[in-house]
Prior knowledge:
Layout (H helix, E strand, L loop, with lengths): L1 H10 L4 E4 L3 H20 L5 H9 L1 E4 L10 E4 L5 H12 L7 E4 L6 H5 L8 E6 L8 E6 L5 H13 L3 E5 L7 H17 L5 H11 L6 H8 L1 H15 L8 H8 L12 E3 L3 E3 L3
Amino acid sequence: MGAGIAQVFATKGYAVTLHDANGAMLEKAKAGIGGSLARFVEKGKLTAEDRDATLARLGTAHDLAGLAGCDLVIEAIVENLEVKTTVFKELSSYVRPDAILASNTSSLPITQLAAAVTNPERFIGMHFMNPVPLMQLVEIIRGLKTDEATYQAVFAAAKDLGKTPVTVNDAAGFVSNRILLPMINEAIFTLAEGVASAEDIDTVMKLGMNHPMGPLALADFIGLDTCLSIMEVLHAELGDSKYRPAPLLRKYVRAGLLGKKTGEGFFKYEATRQPARV
């Protein structure tokens, strides 16, 4: 997600600094962006000159202090409140008072994250969809103290990227994952109960509901650990048993079967996709 966000900003002319605590991941991200841009060139959607200019606008920082000069910092790390809070506390000590801090969180409370920084009025949620270069939606989430100038600046930035920003209240899961993740979770319950195979569940939703991707394949694409984290937030924040994470989802995460990023989830990702174990 972070690499995708960096790519769309750099493509639109912004100078971008990528940061990751792991130097190898920084190089992997830059290589991934290069590959993505190359595909856009092959399809005639980007010129070679624009690709080279985009890559030239991408820099890297190996520590958070390297982000001190940024006007807007967008966090896109693991969906864990404690980890995000720790990063924002440190980041807040480096950036300028007028810098905007944004989180790409899928479900965590923006108001609670904002409490970790020095200037919570400059904090906002900016939830992109994956893959970022292709998906149009950005959910803009104001925290309790987010000021109007911050909201307007981020809304305008999203439009400048060619995205469609939608303003959403600071509620668990926002709109996208409040609706999407319970559907995925129910598909996992359906699989666990033996109602149909993983392949057939996805086929029903693709052909019967006109979804471009089945819910189980989508869960693998998102990452089953991320799906579990979001369901846990929904369950804790909303207190309704309908948000209880499916036990099979927990089992897969405990087994390290996290989806496409690990090569196996509800499907295996090798030369051809095959249903994984149940």
